[in-house]
Amino acid sequence: MFDRSRRSLLTRRRKPQLQRMPWVVDEDTFIDRCTRCNKCLHACETKIIIKGDGGFPTVDFNQGECTFCYGCAEACPEALFHPRTESPWALKADIGQGCLARNRIECRSCGDMCEVQAISFRLQPGGVAQPVLNNEGCTGCGACLSVCPASAITMVTHQLEE
């Protein structure tokens, strides 16, 4: 007989990390005006926009990362997006306690995927290098989230600086 609790290490069942698309105006306006035409789903170059609750488009970071191509906004027939010149959103990565490196298991998957190098690793004498997240450098693209084998990364909203 095998230990079923260890088998879960090999599966990648993740809770969805859902978020509205970048540059979306406030949530109430989005819900009121979105016609659920799905043009944004087809325009997304990384195919991370899915139908969410009520058929409204939602970003699912478990599918991949946002490249901030602005395709979703350009495809939308409604005035639901801020101009591309504005900050896309206030999302930032957050590395939780389930992180393998924080539990003394060598892993640098998130840092390897972070194109802007907002995640680095601080060497520890006689131990495993620990992740260091630069919130100011994090774009909130979600590239780190889908590759984390421990599902220890979440996207959280940070206050945008005015």
Automatic annotation (TrEMBL):
Keywords: 4Fe-4S, Cytoplasm, Iron, Iron-sulfur, Metal-binding, Repeat
Domain 4Fe-4S ferredoxin-type: from-to ranges: 23-54, 57-86, 129-158
The keyword Lyase is annotated on this UniProt entry: no
Gene3D superfamilies: 3.30.70.20
Residues involved in [4Fe-4S] cluster 1 binding: C34, C37, C40, C44
Keyword Repeat: yes
Protein name, per record: Ferredoxin-type protein NapF
